[in-house]
Write a structure and sequence with these properties.
Largest sheet: 22 strands, antiparallel, barrel
Strand content: over 45%
Structural class: mainly beta
Shape: globular
Radius of gyration: 29 Å
């Protein structure tokens, strides 16, 4: 692997230099004023997480500063010289109060402070602290997935497949309510892990994911990218007291073996965190194509393909949350991802006459080697100006870079005749550098109002070198049609402002975002370039009416766009299947969308329901067109490529519900009914479609006996028309069983994904003189055994 050592060292230094400076034991003591102490309970044990607040006086109206005690019960705060009022509070304990005098240049040591158990506590009450799996709000829905046993041992892709409203396909696309214009964030920010599509999400272990948030109609606070909405994957940071963590291991079939860990250690106002995993897996896939064309020779052919890709991957994320004086937090994080893989794919072509007589049979074997390394270094800063955190400033800077290298050797044989087919080989090298700076400020204003504003700047640099060669005797000759070097440079600069307020029983939010975009692409060998610059405004409006306790209505509007992804711009791609090629289009322009949504939200003690109606109008909609041609050998080639084809109108209704049917038996589900109409023209041909479809999911969770947990889920996606044909329905079932042991410190689970091995996609293209029917299975039934151990030492 080629790693730029100087760049790597520079990034590590920039990220962790502030950490090294502030972690030197203590701050400068020579001119420091403040207060320290140790909080104990009546048994002489330290109290973790007690709230220590310094006020101007005993009215407790003007807070000066505050801090929580650490794992040893200790607290240490800087306070300007003067007279104050100190208050210590903690759940189930009587508050401690005292006058406080701070002298200039001195640290007042209060010594050991004993707080007493509260005498007003009720009789012991058993409380089930388990969080509901689903939290629903109008602007977002949060799905807590830490205890999702059907995903244990899997990846982020497995988790996403279990979330209502979302679906993935074999081409690496995520759809939200049937729209593929979705932006995926990691911890609320863009990440190199999702720059090349959803396949990269397989590198994130499911047990490192805390929750998945879906934002169907984002406000101006978020980047305008993603006409379909936003998916935010929140990774676990763990607790912030003492030493705690999780260790897990799993094995499965097909090959899926992994060991991972997540650790946190809080000491001296610093929370250190470390998580990582090592994984080996294989991914068997298969497909079949039948194609008939009146204009090609041969007029009919069948194709059978199978592949098995295996990879060894290591992932490490480490850093620290540094609690600075006066309610400031600095977080430094480094993320490393290294991968090596290999794959073997076999493709068989059988050519027929129109009478179905066999003309010839060609076998094509592709042996591929692949390596990848990604690095991400990030600094985040937060300053809170009040105890509740309603008035705060946040900023973060991020640097990501990495490389990927794929090489293939292709061996071809022909069963009939004496023809000798030449061997081929490909080489693909990618390199990227991403830079991002973001600043956000928010504060309460007027009576119950709120103001937010921010700035964001991103620069993405990407290059790709692709070569295809064919063997002629002892030499290799390039195939010019498939060779070039591609450069992609994108810069986006944005600012936004939001004001929200209330006029009972209404609350409202008004937002406006301005984004400047420049995208430059270049093909080095052909000299072809593209330079796009556009400046756009993106308003958002939210209005909520609260009907009563637990019920409310909301309506919202937002304008967004979907910029062409860089892999949609690449004019070349893999060559393992020489008759079916997917390429990009450097001339792609962005999609724009206007979205309207209204809904009713109802909460009650044992469940909740959200019903929504939505309408979306998109222009410049990107669709993949299929065309037919012949290569230099006269073989038919089917090429798929994206264009800005259509204008689309889509509308639908969605229901999401979560209900506890009986004690320890929960049922959740969703149903999305939608209709869309697309109209467009390509090369003088009108391409339009009207589609009605629906998606549904259902999950049941049952806790029984002592610490047993059973889960089962069903997913169904209805058939859908496309501009050139139709896609069939698909469905699959998953289930899992888990047992908690040793005071719930250990969880052992067994799960089966795609129980009936039915997860596949059928697609038909039916046009005058051309017919193609494709069946593709991008995974197979899998079984996983997972063991997870949780520990905590304070």
């Amino acid at each position: 692997m080629n790693i730029d050592a100087n760049k790597l060292l520079t990034c590590i230094t920039l990220v962790f230099l502030p950490l090294m400076l502030v972690t030197q034991k203590g701050y400068s003591q020579s001119d420091r004023s403040g207060v320290t102490g140790i909080i104990l309970n009546e048994d002489g044990e330290p109290v973790n997480g007690a709230s220590v607040v310094v006020y101007e006086d005993d009215s407790e109206t003007e807070m000066v500063t505050g801090r929580s005690s650490d794992a040893n019960g200790e607290f240490d705060m800087e306070v300007e010289p003067g007279s104050y009022f100190l208050k210590i509070s903690f759940v189930s304990f009587e508050p401690y109060q005292a006058a406080l005098d701070i002298a200039s240049g001195e640290v007042t040591d209060l010594g050991e402070i004993t707080i007493a158990f509260s005498t007003s506590q009720l009789e012991e009450i058993s409380v089930d602290a388990e969080r509901s799996r689903m939290e629903m709000n109008f602007d977002s829905r949060v799905f807590h997935v830490e205890e999702d046993i059907t995903s244990m041992g899997g990846s982020a892709l497995d988790v996403i497949d279990n979330v209502p409203s979302l679906s993935t396909d074999f081409e690496g696309n995520i759809s939200l309510r049937g729209n593929q214009g979705v932006t995926v964030l990691i911890n609320g920010r863009p990440s190199s892990l999702v720059r090349n599509g959803t396949d990269a999400l397989s590198s994130i272990p499911a047990n490192m994911i805390k929750e998945v948030e879906i934002i169907t109609n984002p406000s101006a606070r978020y980047a305008a990218e993603g006409s379909g909405g936003i998916i935010n994957i929140e990774l676990r940071d763990g607790a912030t007291l003492g030493l705690n963590g999780t260790v897990s291991a799993n094995t499965g079939y097909p090959h899926d073996h992994e060991i991972s860990g997540n650790f946190n250690y809080n000491v001296n106002n610093i929370n250190w965190f470390l998580n990582g995993n090592m994984e080996y897996d294989s991914q068997p896939r298969s497909g079949q194509i039948f194609q008939r064309s009146e204009s090609s020779n041969p007029p009919i052919y069948e194709q059978f393909s199978s592949s098995d890709d295996s990879e060894l991957e290591g992932r490490l994320r480490f850093g620290a949350d540094i609690f600075l004086p006066t309610d400031q937090l600095l977080t430094a994080t480094a993320h490393l991802n290294i991968e090596d893989g290999e794959g073997i794919s076999d493709v068989q072509y059988i050519d027929y006459t129109m009478d179905r007589d066999v003309i010839r049979e060609i076998n094509r074997e592709d042996i591929e080697d692949q390596s990848e390394n990604n690095y991400d270094f990030r600094l985040e800063y937060e300053k809170r100006f009040d105890e509740e955190g309603d008035h705060r400033l946040t900023a973060d800077a991020d640097i990501e870079f990495g490389t990927e290298h794929e090489s293939s050797f292709l061996n071809q044989t022909q069963e009939q005749g004496d023809a000798v087919l030449p061997n081929q080989r490909t080489d693909n090298k990618e390199r990227f550098n991403d830079y991002r700076l973001q600043v956000d400020y928010e504060r309460p204003v007027l009576d119950g109002g709120r103001f937010e504003a921010g700035y964001r700047s991103t620069i993405d640099l990407f290059s790709n070198e692709f070569t295809v060669e064919e063997q002629e005797g002892e030499t290799w000759e390039t195939l010019p049609a498939y060779n070039d070097n591609f450069t992609f440079n994108e810069s986006i600069h944005a600012g936004y402002a939001i004001f929200s307020g209330q006029a009972d029983p209404f609350t409202y939010q008004l937002g406006l975002r301005l984004e400047q975009t420049n995208i430059y692409t270049e093909l080095d060998l052909s000299g072809e370039t593209s330079d796009q610059t556009y400046l756009n405004l993106f308003p958002s409006v939210f209005l909520t009416y609260r009907i009563g306790e637990g019920s409310s209505l909301q309506t919202s509007y937002s304008r967004r766009l979907s910029r062409p992804r860089h892999w949609w711009l690449l004019p070349f791609s893999g060559y393992s299947d020489s008759r079916n090629i997917s390429i990009g289009n450097p001339a792609l322009e962005p999609e724009f969308s206007n979205s309207f949504e209204s809904g009713y939200l109802r909460h009650w003690e044992s469940g909740s329901v959200l019903s929504s109606a939505y309408y979306r109008h998109r222009t410049g909609v990107v669709e993949h067109i299929t065309s037919q041609d012949e290569n230099v050998n006269g073989d038919p080639i089917t090429t798929r490529f994206p264009i800005n084809l259509a204008t689309e109108e889509a509308w639908g209704v969605e229901f999401t519900a979560d209900q506890e049917l009986f004690e320890n038996l929960q049922l959740s589900g969703s149903l999305n009914l939608y209709q869309s109409k697309s109209e467009g023209t390509h090369e003088g041909e009108e391409l339009s479609s009207e589609s009605e479809s629906f998606q549904s999911r259902m999950r049941i969770r049952w806790r029984f006996l002592e610490n047993w947990n059973f889960q089962s889920s069903l997913r169904y996606r209805g058939p859908r028309s496309t501009t050139q044909g139709r896609r069939s329905a698909s469905s699959y079932v998953s289930m899992g069983l888990a047992k908690e042991m040793f005071d719930e410190a250990v969880t052992v689970s067994l799960n089966v994904r795609d129980l009936f091995n039915s997860r596949q996609r059928d697609m038909i293209i039916d046009e005058p003189g051309f017919y193609s029917e494709r069946t593709y299975s991008w995974s197979s039934r899998s079984v996983r055994l997972n063991v997870r151990y949780r520990f905590s030492r304070n």
